[in-house]
């Protein structure tokens, strides 16, 4: 017993080229078969119809002769014996019998070729046989027979019997030869269709082979390669576009992973080296308990820095994930700002910096932010913390909320600090980027605060912008969409 599942698996393993060729050959075979059968049917029916019409016409002619000149034997003889001569290729025979079946006149040798007993019952007077009858002659020839009664003159006497025979053996040979030629054309057409099918399928699948060669060259170091959509057939344009989209996503994910790994290695190297150095120094000789305590306290600071770096990097990785989502809710931005200012009051006083809301800023109840409140506070906290670090004693930090273009809510944090040179403004939101590397070692922080702010705004489909002037301060504006 044949396993149908095995057959399906085998057929599914066939190449597209083979499948297309087989389908093309089968469809071509079906069309050729229908065409040949139709042509064969047209030929046979046309010949049968013409033969029947020929015999019917001869019967009508003989009836007219018997009706108009029944005693004119010369006319009958000419029609029955001599008029058949031009039709010798068609082998036409005629016979006239009396009512008792006796032969009055007939075509030469008709008695041996088409004897009277093989003819069908004659059609009645005035009726023309609708269809000829095919019979086998004693010598094995195929005959088309037609019989009818004919009135003699205007008398009411017994009618004559007309027997007509047409030897269609030559038509059988013609049809047989035609059938052989049709079969030859059919099989030749199948072979030609197979060859054409292989050629067409090969040409049609050339773009797929080209796509395959292109894809084979794509690797982790070649993710920039693209198929493009200009050179492909219309049916493959969508596939090429989808594949390039997939490569875009893969390249973006790979770059993010590489960036995350590089950032992690870069930022963890210094704290780990510090920990290793302090530990080696502490273990180099016997020390007092206070010395060990100082080492542990210093190590704890490095551990806290490591923890903060890892937490920040993980936040950035999650924020940049396509599946990342936030919990948007409507809230009063002024209340959140006051809480953040209150949190940083102690740090600002220690640095000698003032943090406050803009003078004259009223609590406009119509200004409502629809965002994740926790992320809102984190972005604002990062900006205030960064401003405190870069603002000298006696400086101030002002936070302002106002309506922006397209009904957005703009929250700006402006400080009177040292400012940033224009050449650094485009990169201050990059991870670990520091405008002044010589002073960065003296300041706490991971260099990820502004990068986190940018990621938070991207999660909210918002925007972050910065303006700065060296020696006068910096203003960072968060624009939350309506």
In short:
The protein is 54% helix and 15% strand. It is an alpha+beta fold.
Structure description:
With 482 residues, this protein is an alpha+beta fold. It folds into three domains: 17-176, PAS domain (Beta-Lactamase, 2-Layer Sandwich), CATH 3.30.450.20; 234-319, Helix Hairpins; 329-480, Histidine kinase-like ATPase, C-terminal domain (Heat Shock Protein 90, 2-Layer Sandwich), CATH 3.30.565. The chain has 14 helices and twelve strands. The chain has helices spanning 4-12, 16-68, 73-82, 110-113, 169-204, 206-216, 234-283, 289-319, 333-343, 345-351, 373-389, 422-425, 437-440, 449-459; strands spanning 92-97, 103-106, 133-136, 142-150, 160-167, 329-331, 354-357, 369-371, 396-403, 409-415, 463-469, 473-480. Strands 2-1-5-4-3 form a five-stranded antiparallel beta sheet. A five-stranded mixed beta sheet has the order 7-9-10-12-11, covered by helices on one side. A two-stranded antiparallel sheet has the order 6-8. The radius of gyration is 53 Å and the shape is rod-shaped. The two termini are 70 Å apart. The relative contact order is 0.06.
